[in-house]
Design goal:
44% of the residues lie in helices and 20% in strands. It is built from 14 helices and eleven strands. Strands 1-2-9-6-5-3-4 form a seven-stranded mixed sheet, sandwiched between helices. A two-stranded antiparallel sheet has the order 7-8. Strand 7 (143-148) and strand 8 form a beta hairpin. The longest helix has 21 residues, at 213-233. The mean pLDDT is 96.
Length: 362
Amino acid sequence: MKTTTVNVSLSNCQYDIFINDYCFDLKPIQHLLTNRHIAIISNQTVAPLYLDSLIKALSPYNKKIITFNLPDGEEYKNQNSLNLIYDFLAENNFNRSDLLISLGGGVICDMTGFAAASWMRGIDFIQVPTSLLAQVDASVGGKTGINHAKGKNLIGAFHQPKAVIINTATVKTLTKQEYKSGLGEAIKYGFINQPQFISWMQKHAHSINNLDLTTLTSLITQCCQFKAEIVQLDEKEGGIRALLNLGHTFAHAIETFTQYKSFTHGQAVSIGMVMAAELSGIIGLSDNNLRKELEKHLQQFHLQIKLSKDIDPIELVKLMRLDKKVIGNKHRLILMKSIGKALIKKNVCEENILQAIIQCQA
């Protein structure tokens, strides 16, 4: 049993992602934990499962630990919840020398990171992701933020963690929906620029679908490596990092329209990637087989590929106008030439976007 390390090296900082399938391994980062106050931010679902284990892992290095739990759900990723974190930090005299630790899925990762980015103009934090989605995506790369009523992740900051601690065994307590949500984010890397990863996932589909921890630890490690490589080239999404948003412009509109109650993030991303493939064909960027090929890969992992007809496509297009990749009222979308060859496409016509959404409804 050993811990695998993935390094993220940026121009102004570097940190490690520590991955194993049996514990929260804090020994490599003990220098970050001593002689400072620590606050663990979690939620009411994750805390009963893992908070005691994390505190026990911290105890050899620090016993000045306080905890705060938020309600569970994407609908709580907002300014009200963020203010509750600020109130908690103020009540406990948290200052710039102190440390935040996230314990949870993507919502907790994003919110804790944004609290760290904004409290006293920036304090240190460590990510301890417990969902597959957070382990393969949200905990890595320094994107932090909250949702606004008008759109997802409209408020946020880039703020890199000091470390990421991943115990892949936590996926065993996920619901099927949450697990599939993580797979939607994982398979995304293959469609962007890692076609060999698609082949690897196909080869190991049975083990992945049955939550084999050895296979999942390899999957998560590969995803962290893929994301680290892109983030190192473009930390603040001035160019190539935007590729990581494949399917996300559609997905965020779907999530906002349904008020985060009808789809998990990964489900919405899966549908969004199908729409991106359809749109790629409509504008002649790819051949007509791309969508069918992509759907085949997604269905192998029981991921959703159709949007129900009760969702208004015109309203989705309106919501897409608020996406952070829109420049000068012109849609800039991540599309594909083929599997593993994604690109940034500027000035995409709204009529074509609308057509792609309609063609992906059932």
